[in-house]
């Protein structure tokens, strides 16, 4: 493991602990060269389905794309790194549990939105505005109005094509 600060390969593990229901091992390390500390995560390499994009292309599942999208949506919001990690982990488990060889990208996008809506409504609106590519301000305002109505009623918005409320 290379030190992210000085790139030296010699370091020692200071602390190890399981996290995320035992599926990840978090290790605190100290570089023996520059003495700075950093954290690494060790996880089992899973086999994920291929993601089928809107244009028909297929590409390997990339966890970092989900992480980056969530980070952008949650920027300057009261959402912890642990909450983001749990969200991504839940989406990964969902994909693996489906047992499919290929999954349309919109399944992932809708799941991210469903989980973001429960996590932080502002982050949800940010993500939805990019993901849904609203054509004009009227579409965007309609989405905000629906979200506000749901908040008043205390119920989550059903996802399009999912036949009801999210679980």
UniProtKB/TrEMBL annotation:
UniProt keyword Transcription, yes or no: yes
Keyword Zinc: yes
Zn finger intervals (unnamed): 3-34
Cofactor descriptive note: Binds 1 zinc ion.
Biased composition (Basic and acidic residues): 147-156
Cofactor(s) named in the record: Zn(2+)
Domain of life: Bacteria
Keyword set, alphabetical order: ATP-binding, DNA-binding, Metal-binding, Nucleotide-binding, Repressor, Transcription, Transcription regulation, Zinc, Zinc-finger
InterPro entries associated with the record: ATP-cone_dom, NrdR-like_N, RNR_NrdR-like
Ranges where the ATP-cone domain occurs: 49-139
Stretches the record annotates as Disordered: 147-167
PANTHER family: TRANSCRIPTIONAL REPRESSOR NRDR (PTHR30455:SF2)
NCBIfam families xref list: transcriptional regulator NrdR
Annotated function: Negatively regulates transcription of bacterial ribonucleotide reductase nrd genes and operons by binding to NrdR-boxes.
Family: Belongs to the NrdR family.
Protein name in UniProt: Transcriptional repressor NrdR
